[in-house]
Amino acid sequence: MDTVAAEGLLSASWLVIALPLAGAAVLLLGGRRTDRWGHLLGTATIVVAFAVALACTVQLAGLEERAVDVDLFTFISAGQLDVQAGLLVDPLSATFMLLITGVGALIHVYSIGYMAHDPRRRRFFAYLNLFVAAMLLLVLGDNYVALYVGWEGVGLASYLLIAFWHERPAAATAAKKAFVMNRVGDVGLALAIFVMFAQLGTVSYEGVFGGVGALAGGTLTALGLLLLLGACGKSGQFPLQAWLPDAMEGPTPVSALIHAATMVTAGVYLIARSAPIYDLTPTARTVVLAVGAVTLLYGAIVGCAYDDIKKVLAYSTVSQIGYMFLAVGLGPVGYAAAIAHLLTHGFFKAGLFLGAGSVMHAMDDQVDMRRFGGLARKLPVTFVTFGLGYLALIGFPFLSGYWTKDAIIEAALDRGGWSGWLLGAVAVVGAGLTAFYMTRLMIMTFFGRQRWTPGVHPHESPPVMTVPMVLLAIGSVAAGFLLVVVAPLGEWLEPVFGVPEEAEHVVAPAVVGVVVTVVMAVGVLAAWLFVGRREVPEVAPARVSPVVRAARRSLYADAVNESLFMRPGQWLTRALVWVDNRGVDGAVNGLAATLGGSSSRLGRAQTGFVRSYALGMLGGAVIVAGALLAVTAG
C-alpha cells in the first residue's frame, strides 16, 4: 500500500466528504436566511464532490499499487485502543465514491424541481447532503470504526428523510420502523468490531485482514455472521427486509438515493470489503449465499402482487440486492460481478424511482397503479427513460442488467454440484419473476385505458427533472457493456480482491444467456396474458388465491416479526412493569406507608398538656417499680 502523503488530489480526497458535510451544516445552521438558495448550495456541493472524486480516481488509476492511505488525525486514543481517522482510496472505495456522488448529484438536481413547492425544501437538501456525506465516510474510512460512524450517520439521515413529512402518520411510523430494524443489524456490526479489538487489538482494515488468519475457526465464523447481521439490516435482506418497502413514505428522491446510491448498497460494501474474513470461513460465506438466494426470491414474489408503484420498485431492490449478496457469497469469483451489478443497478433503479416520481408529479402524488393507465402519450420523456430502465432491470439483451445479472448466474452455476444448480435455478426464476412484475408495472402505468381520478390532468415534468432521468437512462443502456466487455471491472478491482482462479464453466456462458433471455421473455408474456389482455379493475379484487393473498401481505413477514419478536417483547415489558409496580414499588411504598402510619399514630400521644406528661411519668414509674419488686421477690 502506498503510504506516502498521497500526492496531488488524493491528499485532498477528504474534500469529497467535507463538501456535502459543510453544505448540510450551512443549511441547518443558517436557518431561513438560506431558504432562497439552499437547494442550489446543496446541489453544488455534491456536483463539486463528484468532480473531486473523478479527479482522484483518475490519479489513482495512474499509480502502480492503486491504494493510498490518507492520514487525518487521531480519533480515539485510550489505553491499547488507538483509532486513527484516515481514508483508504483504492479501486473499491473509488468505485463507490463515483457512484454515490455521481448518481447523488443527479438526484439532487432532480429534487430541485420535485421539491420546488415544499416550504421545507432547504432542510430537505441539508438532510440529503448529510446522507451523502455519511455514506462517503462509510466507504472511504480506512478502519471499521470510521465505517461504523458513517454507518450510523446513514441510519440517522435515512430516519430524518423517511420522516420528512412527519405530519403523515404513515411516514412517522415507517421512519421509526426503519430506525429500529436497522438498530438490530447495527448491534451485529458493533459486536463484530468488539471481537476484532478483543482478539486482534486493532480495528484498521490492514491490521484486521493481516491477523484474521491466526484466529480460531469459530471466532472467524462468529465474526462473519455478526458482520452479515449488520449488512442485512442496512441492505434490507432477510430477515430484516420489512423496513425497506415502508420507507417509500418519504419523498421519492429519498427513495432513489436509498435504493440506488447509498444505504442499501452499504451491506454489499461491508461484505465485499471484509472479503479476507469471508474467504477464510466457508460457513459464514454459505450463510451469505443462503440469505441472498432467499431474499432475491422473496422480493421477486412479493413484487408481483403490489399495486403501489414505489413499493413494487422497493421489493425489486430487495430482490436485486439479494443477487448481489448471492454473488459476494460465492467468494472471489463473485466479488467483481456483485459490484458490477451494484453499479448498473444504481443507474437503472435511480432512473426508475425518479420516473416513478415523475408519474406521481403528473398524477397528484398518487401511487396506485390501478388509477394510472394510458400515460405513455402524456409523459413521453418519462415513458422512454422509465422504459429503458425497465428493460435494463429485466435483463433485456445487451442492456446493463443483461451483462451483470447473467454474470452472477454464471458464477452461481460454476460453483458446481447440487448447490450450484440450486442457486443458479433460484437466480433464473428470480429473473423470470422480475420480468413479470416489471412488465405488469409498465402495462398498468403506461398502457391500456385511462383510469385517472377525476380532476387529474397528467403533464410531463420540467427539464430539471427529466434531464437527470435521461442521463440515468443512458447509463441503464450502456453501463453494463462498459463494465463487463469494454473495461472489465474485475481487472480494476484486482488490487482489492486479487485475481480469481479461472472457473470451469458448468454451462457455457452463451447457453446461460439464451436460457435467461427465454425465461425473461416468458415472464413478459405471462404479464401480458394475465394483465395486458384484461381490463385492469380500478380496485383490487377482494377474492384472490391464497398465494396472491400471502404475497400482498409480504409473505407475512411483518406477522412473523410481530409474533416472534414484537409481542414477546411487549409481554416481557409488561411483566417487568408489573413486577416493578407491584413488587419493587409495592415494597418501597408499603415500607413508606408503614413508617408514615406509625409516626402518625405515635404523634397523637404528643398532646402538649403538662398534666398528661406528668401522668405518663407517674405511670411509667409505677410500672418500673412494680417490675423491680417482682424481680426482687423472685
From TrEMBL:
Task: Enumerate the spans annotated as NADH:quinone oxidoreductase/Mrp antiporter transmembrane domain.
Answer: 143-428
Keyword Membrane set for record: yes
Any idea which UniProt keywords this protein has?
A: Membrane, Transmembrane, Transmembrane helix
Q: Principal localization?
A: membrane
**InterPro entries (UniProt xref):** NADHpl_OxRdtase_5_subgr (IPR018393), ND/Mrp_TM (IPR001750), NU5C-like (IPR003945), Proton_antipo_N (IPR001516)
Q: Where in the cell is it found?
A: Endomembrane system; Membrane
Bilayer disposition of the protein? Multi-pass membrane protein
Q: Which residues cross the membrane?
A: 12-29, 41-62, 92-112, 124-141, 187-205, 211-233, 254-272, 284-305, 312-333, 381-400, 420-443, 464-486, 506-531, 613-633
Pfam families per the UniProt record, alphabetical = Proton_antipo_M (PF00361), Proton_antipo_N (PF00662)
GO cellular component assignments: endomembrane system; membrane
Please list the GO terms describing molecular function.
NADH dehydrogenase (ubiquinone) activity; NADH dehydrogenase activity
Q: Which GO terms describe its biological process?
A: ATP synthesis coupled electron transport; electron transport coupled proton transport
Query: Domain NADH-Ubiquinone oxidoreductase (complex I) chain 5 N-terminal: where?
Result: 75-125
Q: Highest taxon of the source?
A: Bacteria
Q: PANTHER family, from UniProt?
A: NADH-UBIQUINONE OXIDOREDUCTASE CHAIN 5 (PTHR42829:SF2)
Q: What is the protein name stated in its UniProt record?
A: NADH dehydrogenase subunit L
Taxonomic source organism: Geodermatophilus aquaeductus
